[in-house]
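2024-03-11 09:14:02 INFO queue: dequeued item Probable GTP-binding protein EngB, len=198
2024-03-11 09:14:02 INFO validating residues
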Amino acid sequence: MDIHSASFVISNSDVEKCPNSKIPEYAFIGRSNVGKSSLINALTGRKKLAKTSGRPGKTQLINHFLINDNWHLVDLPGYGYARVSKKEKKTFQKFITDYFLNRKQLISAFVLVDSRHKPQEIDMEFMQWLGLQQIPFSIVFTKIDKLKPAVLDKNIENYVTELLKYWEELPPYFMTSSTQHLGTDKILEYIEQINQNL
Ligand code: GDP
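2024-03-11 09:14:37 INFO prediction written
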């Protein structure tokens, strides 16, 4: 897929105020610093798209971008746990879970994980939650340029082994580097294929 247009639409923290259209959307989420803004900019070929909403607190907002006038790329806040009781029961930020539970236009999510790190509990929990809600998702391994090929292979192998403890079938996964523009074309192809079949 060639990107011929990419523009910021709206930011907000309320799923009810997200664009009221039938345009299919794909959401990008992960822990902060995972490389989400860089990936969105690499995908769209726009150096500063993921920051164009530019307001303080932007990272705590749901950001919609319109791509090629026919799909929305959604930049979700870096997730963390919200403490809900003294017992330290943990949950994900409510407006993020509300988004996933209520956003009918959402076709699929991309959960970003740093290829350098071993599987993190919060990412695993989040993927399991998506699975329970029957929300389709893929995994995007980021920053692969930072690893030697053998180490990268080992890390992915470990990740897959961990996933297979919980999942019978692996979700699709992509290996990316935003600085080297690796893997971004595969993600765009994947989105294009789904869009064509909608
Ligand atoms: P976000 O908080 O998830 O949006 O993460 P950013 O996109 O701001 O990236 C966090 C840091 O990782 C920044 O210093 C980026 O320059 C760096 N980074 C992001 N993607 C890559 C990548 O593919 N390769 C390398 N080497 N660094 C990256």
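2024-03-11 09:14:37 INFO annotate: Confidence is low (pLDDT under 50) at residues 52-58.
2024-03-11 09:14:38 INFO item closed
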